[in-house]
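Troubleshooting log. The previous structure file for this entry was overwritten by mistake, so regenerating from the original sequence record. Sequence copied from the archived sheet and checked twice against the printout by T.R.
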Amino acid sequence: MKTEKILFLILLIFISRINVYSQISPGELSNFHAHLEGISNCTKCHILGEKLSNAKCLDCHKELNSRILLKKGFHSSSEVKGKECLNCHSEHNGKAFRIVNFDEKTFNHNLTGFVLTGAHGKKNCKDCHNAKLIKIQSIKNKKFTYLGLSPDCKNCHEDYHQKTLSDNCANCHDANAFKPASKFYHTKAKFQLIGKHQTVDCIKCHKTEIKNGKKFQKFTGLQFQSCTNCHKDVHNNKFGQNCTECHNSESFTILKTTNKFDHNKTDFKLGGKHEKVNCKLCHKQKFTIPVHHKKCTDCHKDYHNAEFVKNGTSPDCSDCHNHFGFQNSSYSIEKHNNSSFALQGAHMAVPCFECHKKAEKWKFREIGNKCVDCHKNIHNNYISNKYFPENNCLKCHNNNKWNEISFDHNLTNFPLKGVHKTQLCKKCHFTENKDGTKTQKFKGLQTDCTNCHTDKHYKQFDINGITDCNRCHESDNWKAVKFNHNNTAFKLDGKHEKVECRKCHKTKELNNINYIHYKISTKCESCHS
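Regenerated output below.
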């Protein structure tokens, strides 16, 4: 009997604790925090008498806390910084509730510090955010996480070059595709491509082989000190290994004459137009006196008059030109995009001389970076500054086409609804004059219906001089769907409900224009004789 009483007391205490907890707790925790159920665990997340503590959240989520301390990642961005965890991650909503909940399709990945460019922008989140690519074991074991990825290319991509090239893939590749290596220029390599070498297929020198059981193309460690490293010596070393004493890179069949000095033996090889220059133009004194030639400007006048000087140093002409002439330029779009004005959209198709006008001299710098520096501002003084700050055309237009407008009309005091959404901007904001010119109407444009539409009722429904069509009509069509005759001074009852409108509301004429008369007398004798 005594044992039964003890068991009854234990059961009673257990039931009372369940009732107390159910009254205190606002609901079950999600599966992610299910291990924290119970009154004894409340203070692991909450401070007694206060709200949920961010500090306690980060005590558990250590990987996230370390990112925040380093001011990296999404939780350090302006979108999240300073917010309470509870604002986005609600709890006590049941076990199946998803406390990390956002729209992957609309998420702005730029806020994480890793901008999705090129092919990265076409990937699904799970292609990168999966345990296979996470290197930190403590994060890798989590069932659900977006942490743990490194921005290094080799974190996700296999090193095809097997540590034979730089760890920075961006030196040669861009984010669109690994092939071709759009940023690689052979001019930066130890072996410069000149003459016929410029037309040789890469695979002829950079052979593909199997290394460590994988396909591998060799780019470094190639021997090129002598022509015979790649070319067979058909003379069997009869004339030595220095082929350039007689040949050049244009063709093996073109031989140097024996009575002409081989300039290639010097540290300034003649190429392009230099081959046709009279020796005395460079060697103005004795040939034994060295001629400075490290820079093009040692011999050539700086046509640009130090326009490109940076930090006291002017770049060499060879950065944009070659020795075949100054007329053509090798200044690429990639180089232009490293300047203060990156070429985007339609600008990429514009010829250089459209922006860089030639007066007495070509001008390349300080020609302006704003739209209005090159394009006429047709909206000047027509659009309020709050919609057109600093005359920035990109607030409404883009670099692809001027007629692609992205202006949010909801920011104005006239949100577009119904049929208004399908109208062209010029319908309301441009008036065509008799002489063919157009007048803009943006700033101060009235929002009254009659400002754009003809009042077919001839002010019958004016209130204080304004006709509000919205009292009867909607924006989808002109049908008076909102009109209710019972809200007028003459409610329809009895047989009046079946009388056709035109029986009472006759057509009148004003200024040779017919209109329907709605404002009529409500007296019986006005209609009944």
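The chain is about 15% helix and 5% strand. Archived copy saved in two places this time.
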